[in-house]
Write a structure and sequence with these properties.
Layout (H helix, E strand, L loop, with lengths): L2 H10 L1 H22 L3 E10 L8 H21 L2 H10 L8 E6 L5 E8 L2 H22 L10 E6 L4 E2 L4 H25 L1
Antiparallel strand pairs: 1-3, 1-4, 1-5, 2-3
Helix pairs in contact: 2-6, 4-5
Length: 192
């Protein structure tokens, strides 16, 4: 078959293409609606300790320990118990928010990421968890001498960002897939 034959065959079966286009757009819209809107807010908290600046092996070993502590804290801040306690203290509802903790590679920066269908809830929960985390570190350090005391610094205040897949892209991708499938079916029907 030549390109002209293929295009002619597809044109003869254009009703199939039109039906596929309508069905594909409806499916794309349904997928977008079912997926809903998701927002993400992220707070970053730096753990620091004065002794990490010490020269030689002592400073390096201490920084490595601090990085390992940051990994442990990242797991703790994502636990349901910590999240529920943090949001209860801040008097906010967790709702559908999900919290994840992570560490920037080879650092002592704890990243607290919250996803929710509400931008304001994502930001509020991220703020509550970050604040509770910093207060928890301070409470644990009350009897520690100042030169050994671990401190925290908020590097990034959470801002809500739209994180769902783009609905226009989903509908367009469904339309292209539907038309391609319809064209292939039209060609297979003609070859019989």
């Amino acid at each position: 078959m030549t390109l002209r034959d293929i295009l002619h065959t597809i044109w003869q079966r254009r009703i199939l293409l039109e039906i596929a286009a309508v069905v594909a757009v409806v499916v794309g819209l349904a997928i977008s609606a079912l997926q809903g809107f998701q927002y993400k807010a992220q707070a970053q908290v730096l753990l620091a300790q004065p002794s990490t600046a010490a020269p030689g092996d002592t400073g390096v070993a201490t920084q490595q320990k601090l990085n390992l502590l940051a990994q442990n804290y990242a797991r703790v801040v994502a636990t349901p118990e910590f999240v529920n306690s943090s949001t209860a203290t801040a008097r906010i509802s967790t709702g559908d928010a999900s919290v994840a903790g992570d560490v920037a590679p080879n650092t002592s920066i704890v990243k607290i990421t919250v996803r929710s269908s509400s931008r304001s809830r994502a930001v509020a929960v991220a703020n509550a968890v970050a604040d509770a985390f910093r207060q928890s570190i301070d409470r644990q350090q009350t009897a520690v001498p100042a030169d050994l005391k671990m401190t925290t610094a908020l590097l990034e205040r959470p801002h809500g960002h739209f994180s769902s897949a783009n609905p226009v892209f989903i509908v367009f991708a469904a339309l292209v897939a539907g038309l391609a499938l319809a064209a292939t079916i039209a060609l297979l029907i003609e070859m019989k």
